[in-house]
Design goal:
The chain has 119 residues and is mainly beta. 0% of the residues lie in helices and 61% in strands. It is built from no helices and eleven strands. Strands 2, 4, 5, 6, 9, 10 and 11 form a seven-stranded mixed sheet that branches. The model has no long low-confidence stretch (mean pLDDT 95).
């Protein structure tokens, strides 16, 4: 079992910055990929940034050059640094982890943290 707890959301003006944190606990060694997703009202949840199982990073085209995913393995924490925020970045941001144990893939989600960007 893996537990994910996000923090760092809030209200910011356009052009501002926020850093989201996702602290993982539980079966950490089983995690092979972590990511940030977001869901705006009336829209589907979409991938924002991810660490793949190979350790590389992927970003949605809409956030490339503005957002950076990073991690601190000692703290079992993944971060999302968001710069040059736009009103269209307003959404609930979710941390995601994929773990593999006993040849079984499991998906875990955090509770979400609200990011609101005012124009």
């Amino acid at each position: 079992q893996v537990e994910l707890v996000e923090s760092g959301g809030g209200l910011v003006q356009a052009g501002g910055s926020l850093r989201l944190s996702c602290a993982a606990s539980g079966s950490i060694v089983s995690i092979n990929a972590m990511a940030w997703y977001r869901q705006a009202p009336g829209k589907q949840r979409e991938l924002v940034a991810a660490f793949t199982s190979r350790g590389s990073t992927n970003y949605a085209d809409s956030v490339k050059g503005r957002f950076t995913i990073s991690r601190d393995n000692a703290k079992n924490t993944v971060y999302l640094q968001m710069n040059s925020l736009k009103p269209e970045d307003t959404a609930v941001y979710f941390c995601y982890a994929n773990s593999v144990q006993d040849h079984t893939s499991r998906h875990y989600w955090g509770q979400g943290t609200q990011v609101t960007v005012s124009s």
